[in-house]
Design goal:
It is built from ten helices and three strands. By secondary structure, the chain is mainly α.
Length: 224
């Protein structure tokens, strides 16, 4: 049996870029941030906490399974945004390090991330979050495999195009270590304005699935 390769512990700079990726993605999908930190704990190398999170993954699953077309659409759209948020950290870390590990849906990456290590995995929870969200959105079908590739490509392009924002947020985290939500959000908006970058491209903000025809015809506004 071939032994799994142990991934080297990421540098403090890599962790900062990882968390910065989560920050930028959170704002792009309309979430508010409670705080962000690169202070390590027993089970995490860093963390971005969002505020005003409603429901959760299983709540979204209930919407998807409800049988109501609009609730189903809402649940799938919410899961897509959860996946966008989760996958952004590993992708940003991979862009920074030049590593192929930004593909968190790869079985090989997942197994290696779970290999025995004397420190927390860099993105184990992000792997689980991304996969779980897209499995719910795919409603138990194999379509989630295609969803994983699509969300990875889209978020990598989104972050690469806004890399100067990611770098500015990472620099803030490296300087302060722990930053409150208002400060980190202000940093994102200031950086976006300074560099002339759009935080809400349609390719990231819009759900992949059309709103149910009856709701769209009624002009209903739905924020996933």
């Amino acid at each position: 049996m071939t032994a799994l390769m142990v991934i080297p512990k990421p540098s403090r700079e890599a962790v900062a870029h990882h968390e910065a990726g989560h920050v930028v993605a959170a704002i792009a999908v309309g979430a508010s941030i409670a705080d962000a930190t690169i202070a390590p704990t027993a089970d995490a190398l860093g963390r971005v906490r969002r505020s005003r999170i409603l429901g959760g993954m299983e709540f979204h699953a209930q919407d998807v399974e409800s049988g109501d077309a609009l609730r189903r659409w809402r649940g799938r759209a919410a899961c897509l945004n959860e996946a966008r948020f989760a996958v952004a950290g590993p992708i940003a870390e991979g862009i920074y390090t030049g590593s192929p590990w930004w593909r968190p849906w790869s079985a090989a990456v997942f197994l290696r991330a779970r290999a025995e290590r004397p420190h927390p995995v860099s993105f184990g929870d992000d792997v689980l979050g991304t996969v779980r969200a897209l499995e719910i959105a795919a409603e138990g079908t194999m379509a989630f495999l295609g969803y994983q590739n699509r969300v990875g490509r889209e978020m990598r392009a989104f972050l690469a195009d806004r890399w100067r924002i990611v770098e500015d947020v990472a620099a803030l985290l490296l300087r302060e270590e722990t930053v409150d939500g208002d400060t980190v959000e202000e940093s994102v908006w200031e950086s976006a304005e300074r560099h002339g970058l759009d935080m809400f491209p349609e390719s990231i903000v819009a759900p992949w699935w059309k709103m149910p025809r009856a709701a769209a015809a009624a002009g209903e506004q739905v924020t996933p």
